[in-house]
Amino acid sequence: MSKDIPGIVILGPTASGKSRLAIEIARRFSGEIVSCDALQIYRHMNIGTAKTQRHEMQGIPHHMLDVRDPGEDFSAGDYQRMGREAIQDIHERGRLPFVVGGTGFYLRALIDGLFQGPSRSEELRIRMRRIIQRRGSKTLHRALRKVDPQSAARIAEMDGERIIRAYEVYLATGKTMSWWQGQPRDALSGYRWLKLGIHVPRQELYQRIDQRAEDMFASGLLEEVRSLIARFPKESHAFKAIGYRQAIEYFDGTLTLPRAIDETKKQSRHYAKRQLTWFRADPAIAWLKDSPDPKQLHDEAVVLVDEFLEVMK
Fold first, then answer.
1. Band (1; pLDDT cuts 50, 70, 90)
2. Residue from 53, 41, 45 nearest 231 by CA
3. Residue 312: closest CA among 191, 206, 138
4. What burial class does residue 253 get, using C-beta atoms within 10 Å of its C-beta: 0-12 exposed, 13-18 middle, 19+ buried?
5. Cβ neighbours of residue 270 under 8 Å, at least 6 residues apart?
6. 100 near 10, Cβ under 8 Å?
């Protein structure tokens, strides 16, 4: 008999159908969903993040959505603290926690814990932000790739804040972020997790990603971004996200609308590749093969969850 508390993780790359499957499975097993998405934590960013809307939730409570404004800072440490509180609250009410999303770093922070690396250095950060302002984030990303290729492979060239943190750790300690992440961490104790990943064949996944990008722009992404930058600083970290960045570049006259849509597709495909690289390094993930018949995917997931919960009794 296990004394650990059961929990379910449903993960996968962008546009793989995680949210839909999670809602169906959570409804069957009296669950509640904890979103694990670095962008869906921001209020008012709905279209560009493909955020599950209330009418799509089918009455399943969702946590870690809309917890910050786009102009506010939010770290993996913040996510870890608030996400763990949500999981504990779900358990105490006799419900089953489902952690659902595609932000691998947040998932690691939540379950495995964060590494105890050096504190932030404002002096180093100011210097690196100046480099990015003058020469672009790709320049700093190339520098990071030379000293810590593992971290660079997981961080997008345009993700200035994460590039700065990884390079800051190296400069401050002489050891890479990858090395620090291999050290003991403050893991979430008392829980045992079943991790289910959704595998979608690459060509099909890329078609879904391209269609999602077109749908976002057709559904009002430009209007959403116009409203956001009227209320929050355009330089906010949240607006570096794929889709939002391209929309802002369209407003700035840097990109035409067709080019903005194409760039959103391209960057989304690259992001999906990075997500898969991250997840494939975790041998604990049981991969579900996506099917044209949604019922087949649903049934396979139900069997695995049933078996897991039976063992946990």
1. very low
2. 45
3. 191
4. exposed
5. 156
6. yes
Residue 75 neighbours by CB under 8 Å, 6+ apart: none
Going by their DSSP bridges, the two strands 96-101 and 62-63 should be labelled as unpaired
SS3 157: coil
Q: Whole-angstrom Cα distance, residue 204 to residue 211? A: 11
C-beta separation of 9 from 195 below 8 A:
yes
β-strands 285-289, 5-11 pairing: unpaired
Query: Which CATH architecture is the domain 122-181 placed in?
Result: Orthogonal Bundle (1.10)
Distances (CA, A) of 213 to 222, 225, 241: 12, 14, 13
Structure tokens at 252: 């700035």
Q: What count of other Cβ atoms lies within 10 Å of the Cβ of residue 97?
A: 25
Segment 2-35, tens digit of pLDDT: 589 999 999 999 999 999 999 999 999 999 999 9
Radius of gyration of the CA atoms of the chain, in A: 20
What span, in angstroms and rounded, lies between the C-alpha atoms of 141 and 157? 6
The domain 5-113+191-312: what is its CATH number? 3.40.50.300
Pull the structure tokens for residue 234: 């355009």
> What pLDDT is stored for residue 2 in this prediction?
54
pLDDT value at 238 more than 80: yes
Q: Write down the domain spans for the chain.
A: 5-113+191-312, 122-181
Q: Tokens 């926690």 belong to which residue?
A: 97
Q: What is the pLDDT of residues 193-217, one digit of tens each?
A: 999 999 999 999 999 999 999 999 9
Strand residues in the chain grouped as ranges (E) = 5-11, 31-36, 62-63, 96-101, 191-199, 285-289
Widest Cα–Cα separation across the chain: 63
